[in-house]
Amino acid sequence: MKETTATVADPVGFHLRAAGRIVKLTKKFASEVTIRFNGRSANAKSIMGLASLAAECGSSVDIEADGPDEAQVLEALVQLIAVDLAHPEQDA
Amino acid sequence: MRTLQGIAASPGYAVGPVFRVTRRAPALPQRAIAAGDIDAEIDRFRRAVARARAEIRRLMEKLERELGPEEARILDSHLLILEDELTWDRTIERIRVEGVGAEIAFSRACADIAVQLRDTRDTVFRERVNDLRDVEERVLRALTGEESPAVAGPAQPSVVAAANLTPSETAAIGRVNVLAFVTDDGTQTSHVAILARSLGVPAVVGLGGAATGLDEGQIVAVDGMSGEITVEPDAAAVERCRVLGLQQRRVDLRLAGLRDAPAITPDGRRVALLANIELPVEVEEALARGAEGIGLLRTEYLYFQHHDIPSEEEQVAAYADVIRRMAGRFVILRTLDVGGDKVSRYLGAKREYNPFLGWRGIRFCLANRVLFKAQVRAIYRAAAAGPAKLMFPMVTGLDELRAARELCEECRDELAREGREHDGELPIGIMVETPSAAVIADLLARECAFFSVGTNDLIQYTLAMDRTNSRVSYLYQPLHPAVLRTLRGVIDAAHAAGIPVGLCGEMGSETRYAEVLLGLGFDEISMHSAALPKIKQVIRWTPWAEASELVSRLAAMGTADEAAAHLAGHIEQKKRLRHYREDHA
After folding, report:
1. Residue B193 belongs to a domain with what CATH number?
2. Domain limits at B76?
3. Cα B238–B239–B240 angle (5° rounding)?
4. Which of B104, B126, B145 finishes a domain?
5. Is B77 near chain A, with CB under 8 Å?
């Protein structure tokens, strides 16, 4: 199991589309991924779970990954949450 | 026979049976599932989700076809909600553990998430409950075999009645067999109003609860000019509606003949008549009415419709779509103008005591650089598709203009470095809608390529009256000497600096002001497409010299009432003269 922290870069936080991007990314990996914010936790593969975290821009979230590709998924997820979310154009 | 009064949102007349669009709660059968039937029940749930998914995909294709790709994106997240563990896994768990039917199990799973979402203090997230409910109802209908009501439009020519209509619903209803739209909620600028105008069907909105109070199949007569609806009209009322419809078509036909004629006065003064639009679908109407360009492309729509920030790519696609469809005629894109009456909480704008004096327009954009840059980059890139101009709202001084221009430079340099196609020569102008911008118009004119006067705001700021406050609405006086002098000052400053100046407020759509705007010296008038032919007719009838004289007389009046009375007398006299000439021709 690996853990890390990231600061949400999206100007409006985890809105539905940002949550959707996180889900699409983490679903490419086999590991279980959990995001924790403000005492709540959510499966990073669940759009509704992430939306109900209501993490705002600039807030710091804890990410935990457990599985065969935990290092890769953490790296990709930190890049997405802390950097790419601020750039809507890189939406894929 | 009884009548209902609403807000006239799209002109035209129609008589027909009511087709109700309701968000009826789907059936929720209470059934216990025997242990041996659990796997079959889970299978039934899986098939229902598959059906719901297919339905959403079809709706997305339809949206994309009819309203463009950015509209289809609304439903993207619905697909993810369908496959979410919180809905999917929990439903299956409930069927297994609690032995309840798939309907109850799914509905409870959704209710759990809704509670969590409502708990979050942010309205943005609370609004997600609506997306969830949408998905919930779709799956429940798939389970019970009911067709989702919004998927099918009326089977026979009908008047569509609803509490309100979202873009996905109007797209789903389609345009076939729609005689008119009537809704409980809404204003002239609601999505349904704009769509109705672009489709050329009448619409009456803001009916309170009256639209949903209509019965399916009940005959109604809709008057999109006055906003009146007659329920179960008698023969005379139906006839009246038919005659009015015919008359309107005759006038439309005559004015349509002017489509390709230039807006030029008998003494040779040319004025460009442009259209104000918001949605790409409105381009067709603008062109059909003879618009020489788009004088105001509002971009808020992209941000409001999804309650989500559109990506740069999405914006490029939407803007380029409009530019391409205008086929060589120019398009002025206004950057995001939130705040004021257009509050969007998800963007971080808050309700303010004085929203019109608050965090809005360029102030908001300069404070949200990431968002602003994505839009400016998108506009630069879209402009590669054809002639376009960029315009900033709510500018009050040079510092704002310079800061915004600097950001433009930055975007342009980035795009050049990235080797992306863009228009490096994109003209940059401003909306003149604050008294301060009007007063220093000479200074601003030196640093931008054009002006567009936003009279809605300029009038309310100049006369210190809140447009949305009905107790002071009498002060909304376009002919107030302060307004006329202000407009004249702005136009003179623009012309002294050699830049064109247009107008893009409501005032431009009103026939009675057309001669005033001509006389003031506007180079361009931008308006609702529907008003274009009439305004063109006035321009083609009125010598410029005569209009200038009229304006001089109006500007010398002491009060708005005096000016209005003088203008009314002038118009009446011209009308009589024209009839006399026509009778004796």
Report:
1. 3.50.30.10
2. 35-145
3. 90
4. B145
5. yes
Q: Map out the domains of chain A with their CATH numbers.
A: 2-90 (3.30.1340.10)
**A66 pLDDT higher than 80:** yes
Q: Which DSSP state fits B394?
A: S
For B54-104, the pLDDT digits (tens) are 888 888 887 777 666 655 666 777 888 888 888 888 899 999 988 899 999
Contacts A21 to B, Cβ<8 Å:
none
Confidence at residue B78, expressed as pLDDT on a 0 to 100 scale = 83
pLDDT single digits (tens) B200-244: 789 999 898 888 889 999 999 999 988 999 999 999 999 998 998
Residues from chain B contacting residue A91 (CB–CB below 8 Å): 311, 313-314
- Chain A residues in contact with B114 (beta carbon < 8 A): none
Burial (CB count within 10 angstroms: exposed 0-12, middle 13-18, buried 19+), residue B476? middle
Mean per-residue pLDDT, B173-184? 86
Distance from CA of B84 to the nearest CA of A (A): 5
Catalytic residue among A4, A7, A9, A15: A15
Q: Across chain B, what does the average pLDDT equal?
A: 87
Is residue A11 very low, low, confident or very high in pLDDT (cuts 50, 70, 90)? low
B222, B238, B253 — which closes off a domain?
B253
Distance of residue A4 Cα from the nearest chain B Cα, in angstroms: 23
Per-residue pLDDT reduced to its tens digit, B233-254: 999 999 998 998 888 888 777 7
Instruction: Assess contact for B120 and B345: CB atoms under 8 A.
Output: no
Task: Give the mutation candidate from A47, A56, A87 for the B interface (greatest B CB count, under 10 A).
Answer: A47
Which are the catalytic amino acids of B? 191, 504
E-state strands within chain A: 2-7, 32-37, 40-43, 60-66
* B18 and B164 in a common domain: yes
State both tokens at B440.
């220093």
In angstroms and rounded to an integer, the radius of gyration of the C-alpha atoms of chain A is 11
**CB B308 to CB A16 under 8 A?**
yes
Element (H, E) at B452: strand B451-453
Note the pLDDT of residue B340: 59
How many structural domains does chain B have?
2
Please, are residues B8 and B207 in contact by the beta-carbon 8 Å criterion?
A: no
Q: Are residues B76 and B108 in the same domain?
A: yes
Closest approach of chain B CAs to the CA of A67, in angstroms? 18
